[in-house]
Amino acid sequence: MSDTPPQQATAAQKFFGGLMMAIGAIVTLTCGGCTIALIATGMPELLKEISRGQFGMLASLPILLIGIVPALVGVLIFRAGLSQFRPPRLK
Q1: How does pLDDT run across 2-30, given as a tens digit for each residue?
Q2: What is the pLDDT, as a whole number, of residue 15?
Q3: Ramachandran bin of 87, using left for φ above 0, alpha for ψ from -120 to 50, beta for the remaining angles
Q4: Residue 88 and residue 5 in contact, taking contact as beta carbons nearer than 8 Å
Q5: Cβ neighbourhood burial of 74 (10 Å; 0-12, 13-18, 19+)
Q6: CB 19 within 8 A of CB 81
Q7: How far is CA 62 from the centre of its chain?
Q8: pTM exceeding the 0.70 threshold for the entire prediction
Q9: Domain locations in the chain?
């Protein structure tokens, strides 16, 4: 076994990792927050439709699809930036 010290992240890796983390957080918060706001404002109407036996939750499906997919992409960008920012773990 070799006794090489663990690699440290360079300044450029830390900068771009931090930048990716910031962009990912902004994308996640704006897309997720907007989705939550749209669903919350339409929730009383959805509950009325559900109580009448109509399929009101299907109306929120496009909101979820349009809002959740970019939010998940933002989480992935954040995770990629985090892996650039932190030094690799030893096993």
Answers
A1: 556 667 778 888 899 999 999 999 999 99
A2: 92
A3: beta
A4: no
A5: buried
A6: yes
A7: 18
A8: yes
A9: 18-85
